[in-house]
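Entry for the shared binder. Reason: the reviewer on the internal report wants the predicted structure included alongside the sequence.
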Amino acid sequence: MPRTRLYPLEDLEDIPGTKVFTALRSRQGYYLHKFCMSLMKEANREEFKADEKAYLDKFRMTEEQKQAVLDRDLTKLIDLGGNMYFLVKLASTDGMSAQKAVSATSGMSADEYAKMMLEGGRNPAGIRSIRDKN
C-alpha cells in the first residue's frame, strides 16, 4: 500500500528560521556526521587540531562542507546537511558549550538565547511562512 503524506515535503522548507532534518539532509550530511563523531576520541581531536585540512580530507565530505568546518560556520553546516547533535562535537572540540554553539546559529548571544528558551522559546506570532513573506 503506498504511503500517503499529510503534507508536501516542500512545506518542510517553508518554516522561517528552521531547517528540518529530513532523510535528504541526513544523506547529505552523512560523511560530515562521521567526521563529527570521530571527534569523540581524544586522539582524533588532537590529530584534527594539528592539521585540520589533512584530517578533513580523510572524510568524503564535499569541499563546501570542509570549508564550512574550517570556517566554523555552523549555520552553513546545517544548510549542508548537518545536524546540531553532531555539530556540537565540533564546537566542543573548540571548547564551545552546546548553548553557545546553538545560539551561534540563531543570531543571538548565548545569554539572549538562554533567556529566550527559559521564557518558552521563540514567539510563534509573526512570519509563519517563507513563501508568504514575499
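Summary line for the report: The two ends are 39 Å apart (CA to CA).
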